[in-house]
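Q: Here's a chain of 170 amino acids. Please give me its 3D structure as tokens.
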Amino acid sequence: RGYFITLEGGEGVGKSTQIGHLLRNLRNAGIEAIGTREPGGSPGAEILRTVLLSGGVARLGPAAEAILFAAARVDHIDKTIEPALAAGTFVVCDRFADSTRAYQGMRGQLDPRFLRALERVTLGDVRPSLTLILDLPAAEGLARAAARRGAGKAADRFEREDLEFHESLR
């Protein structure tokens, strides 16, 4: 069975960059590995990613947002993560359930029992073998995210939140 590695951290902290380095090193060591992301990582989850990051769901509240993230996660696990792990492939994922605990749980003030129940239904036995948490001052991460996005491209639902929001997540 493969190993499941997740990277967590704020916007612009360098998760994608580090995933690229990790995948390259694993492959150079002869280990089959794939990179993926949340929300997204499978066809159905990518559709939900568009909906979630547009910001339209935010007005429904953190519980509805958490449920939609969970729906995307179910598809991602079923179509991408679990088949790869079963084949002995390492899976390196940009965000996973910890992000839901931070964004909708702590910041959205959802009851931890609600999130644990949602994880029980959503994740089954799929848990990361290792989670790496990357840290950077929120202002610096947001500036990096804006530079990466480039001029004229709209920020996503979370990148549009103010500095206080991101500091509280950190």
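Q: Can you summarize the key feature?
A: Helices lie at 15-28, 43-54, 62-86, 97-107, 112-123, 138-149, 163-169.
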